[in-house]
Amino acid sequence: MKIKDVKVYLVNAVWRNFVITKIDTDEGISGYGEGTMGDFEKTVEAAIYDFKPFLIGREINIQEIYNLLYRHFFLERWSNINDSY
User: How far apart (Å, rounded) are the C-alpha atoms in residues 3 and 49?
Assistant: First the structure.
């Protein structure tokens, strides 16, 4: 089962806004997740859409996707910044 599409929905609530992410698969199964970060819902939405091209077509494997995002978009970037000092 592979990721076919990723969509983000910003949901306004009385006391905070929520970021809901929907992932559609090539087998017609969809999954939802919530990733709210205080008052930075637009930042979270932008980050999800930045990651989208790297997720489309990828097998649904939580650990592999986590490793991809963590190692290539967090660790590398920070290590490169720290290396320049």
Answer: 14
Cα–Cα distance, 7 to 4 (Å, whole number)? 10
- Say if strands 30-34 and 17-25 run parallel, antiparallel, or are unpaired: antiparallel
pLDDT value, residue 83: 47
Distance of CA 55 to the CA centre of its chain: 9
pTM (2 d.p.) = 0.78
pLDDT digits (tens, 9 = 90+) for 61-75: 999 998 888 887 765
| Buried b / exposed e along 16-43 (16+ C-beta atoms within 10 A) | eeebebebeeeeeeeeeeeebeeeebee
